[in-house]
Amino acid sequence: MSDSDESDYPIDEAQIEAILSGLERDGIAWFTLVRPKAEKHLKEVKRRFEKLLESGTLKPYSEYVIFDPDRLPDKSWLGVHAQTRADLLDRGVPEDQLPALPRGIYPKDK
Q: In this predicted model, what pLDDT tens digit does every residue of 31-53 receive, in sequence order?
């Protein structure tokens, strides 16, 4: 995709604020957007957060996840939690009510 095509995917300020809020509160944020729009949002979040962040997509639903590695250094639980989130979605739990973190995982203080 060329840069000129990115104009088809404007930044959703509410989505950016939700991601930033999740990062501040939990050290992590999950979201689902089409790839070009998600990549644009990831760039914007990383620019605004002004700190090194890690991101990726996790199956089964290819949810985007972005997190602060200083607050959540152990990533071993991410894949299992992505599956848990998918199972909850399949049972009808709305995306905005899914847990950001599994039980027993707590972000380090900032």
A: 988 888 898 999 999 999 988 89
